[in-house]
């Protein structure tokens, strides 16, 4: 059993990661945004001294993609500077660092899954700030730094696309959903379990440092994703109508193609995350429960 520290533990992934670590029998502590400012070196050093982790997983991030376009310096502080501060503290303490990143580091113009070593080229401020965090971790902690890129996350522990679609299915006759963006819906519980495996592999010396892609197998569009949600809810998928990104103009450009390859897991002796459809079928009852509880409490 090793000691783990999860930063940003109050978020959707952080919650599921602490649950996965408990299930795996690991000794884990979590620090949410209020408890630890990851841009504050002295605070980070103090946290590592107090918890003495063998593995630190950084789930803290600026995730407001559109807001980052007008507030890039603030997003960069959390997504770029913060991971570098954590990496420096882990270098001093000897801890392994797992840094979460995103598909937005790629330009989204691919036609085959992006390999872990594929050239990056973010189109948005959010993508640029997350790429800065990747580079800070890998440059500062080359022997114990890990970057796990993920995408299209959903889970029971916070607002997300699946929970929104569950709610809209009950109040809308039809929905228009974008069909020209491709990606991999990924359940936070699956990603959390994968992070536990990777951290253990890092400590055992079986998982080399560097970049890994933590997304589900398979691929779909937001339209196809929503149709599958409706099908699992017992609703008619034909109520979901395809449209284009032009119908939903946003401040930050979205990658048209966000499918990530998973080759590096083989070298670590770890199976990639399962197909997105299988995961969604298992996850949906938990998300339905979360939505019902939200309706009861009004939160």
UniProtKB/TrEMBL annotation:
Q: What is its EC number?
A: 1.1.1.133
A GO molecular function assigned to this protein is: dTDP-4-dehydrorhamnose reductase activity
Q: Which of UniProt's keywords are assigned here? A: NADP, Oxidoreductase
Q: Where is the RmlD-like substrate binding domain?
A: 4-287
Q: Cite the annotated pathway.
A: Carbohydrate biosynthesis; dTDP-L-rhamnose biosynthesis
tRNA-binding found in the keyword field: no
Can you tell me which family this protein belongs to?
A: Belongs to the dTDP-4-dehydrorhamnose reductase family.
Q: What is this protein called?
A: dTDP-4-dehydrorhamnose reductase
Q: Native species of this protein?
A: Streptomyces paludis
């Amino acid at each position: 059993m090793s000691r783990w520290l999860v930063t940003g533990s109050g978020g959707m992934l952080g919650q599921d990661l602490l649950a996965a670590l408990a299930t795996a029998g690991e000794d884990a502590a979590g620090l949410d945004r209020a408890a630890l400012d990851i841009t504050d070196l002295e605070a980070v050093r103090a946290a590592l001294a107090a918890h003495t982790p063998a593995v630190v997983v950084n789930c803290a991030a600026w995730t407001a993609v559109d807001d980052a376009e007008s507030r890039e310096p603030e997003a960069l502080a959390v997504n770029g500077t913060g991971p570098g501060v954590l990496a420096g503290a882990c270098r001093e303490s000897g801890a392994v660092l797992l840094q979460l990143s995103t598909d937005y580091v790629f330009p989204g113009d691919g036609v085959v899954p992006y390999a872990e070593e594929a050239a990056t080229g973010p189109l948005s401020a959010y993508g640029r700030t997350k790429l800065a965090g990747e580079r800070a971790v890998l440059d500062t902690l080359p022997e114990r730094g890990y970057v796990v890129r993920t995408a299209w996350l959903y889970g029971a522990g916070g607002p997300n696309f699946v929970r929104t679609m569950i709610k809209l299915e009950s109040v809308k006759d039809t929905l228009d959903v974008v069909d020209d963006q491709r990606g991999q819906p990924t359940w936070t519980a699956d990603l959390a379990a994968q992070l536990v495996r990777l951290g253990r592999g890092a400590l055992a010396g079986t998982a080399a440092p560097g970049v890994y892609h933590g997304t589900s197998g398979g691929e779909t569009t937001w339209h196809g994703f929503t149709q599958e949600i409706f099908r699992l809810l017992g609703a008619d998928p034909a109520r979901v109508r395809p449209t284009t990104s032009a119908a939903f103009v946003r401040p930050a450009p979205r990658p048209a193609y966000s499918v990530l390859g998973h080759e590096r897991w083989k070298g670590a002796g770890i199976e990639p995350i399962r197909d997105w459809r299988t995961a969604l079928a298992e996850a949906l009852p938990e998300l339905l429960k979360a939505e019902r509880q939200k309706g009861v409490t009004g939160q």
